[in-house]
Amino acid sequence: MEEFYTIQGEGYHAGKATYFVRLGGCDVGCHWCDVKESWDEANHPRVTVDKIVENAAQYPGKAVVVTGGEPLMHNLDYLTTQLQNRGIKTFIETSGAYPLSGSWDWICLSPKKFKAPKWEVIEAANELKVVVFNKSDFLWAEEHAKLVSADCKLYLQPEWSKSSLIAPLIVEYVKENPKWEISLQIHKYLNVP
Ligand code: SF4
């Protein structure tokens, strides 16, 4: 769908220079999705994986975030192996709704209520990032925190359109439950893609 060099705005790697590869296609159906234009894969040009790797390798920030859409709708084995062969770290942002493919240096699982994550992605996650849209999402976040590995990082992130309402609740929640940390979409505050 698009590729661009920017600053990772969310989660564990927030603040780092990163090349983003956004793949078309998603059928998870989050009503608050901020990239609905990604949903229909057919609306986006096909690009060879070798070209993506060449593009990414031009930049000094040696890390690629593969996102979407739901990137695991595609087999990501070749892309990630080629990136790692060039000394580029591979990070993924996924809802976990599709089988895990690819060789990853970091897996960010952001599960969605609309399509449950696969067990193989839950087990492999380095980071659990739950987007909080309403109060009931705290309980839902805890249910998923019980499933991930013991060393998985835990983040609560306010849904952007309700951020002013939800962020204060997250602040209080994290103060009471310090195993969680706050993830803010700092790229939106910085006005970078
Ligand atoms: S999983 Fe991501 S891309 Fe798909 S609908 Fe939800 S927020 Fe949008």
Explained architecture:
The chain has helices spanning 49-57, 77-85, 119-124, 136-145, 163-176, 186-190, and strands at 2-7, 17-22, 63-67, 89-94, 106-109, 127-132, 153-158, 180-182. The protein is of the alpha/beta class and 193 residues long. An eight-stranded mixed β-sheet has the order 1-2-3-4-5-6-7-8. Strand 2 (17-22), helix 1 and strand 3 (63-67) form a beta-alpha-beta unit. The radius of gyration is 16 Å and the shape is globular. The mean pLDDT is 96. The structure holds iron/sulfur cluster. Iron/sulfur cluster binds at residues 26, 28-30, 33, 35, 38, 68-70, 95, 112.
Keywords:
27% helix; 8-stranded mixed beta sheet; 193 residues; binds iron/sulfur cluster; alpha/beta; single chain
List the helices and strands and how they pair.
Elements: E1 2-7, E2 17-22, H1 49-57, E3 63-67, H2 77-85, E4 89-94, E5 106-109, H3 119-124, E6 127-132, H4 136-145, E7 153-158, H5 163-176, E8 180-182, H6 186-190
Parallel strand pairs: 2-3, 3-4, 4-5, 5-6, 6-7, 7-8
Antiparallel strand pairs: 1-2
Bound molecules: iron/sulfur cluster.
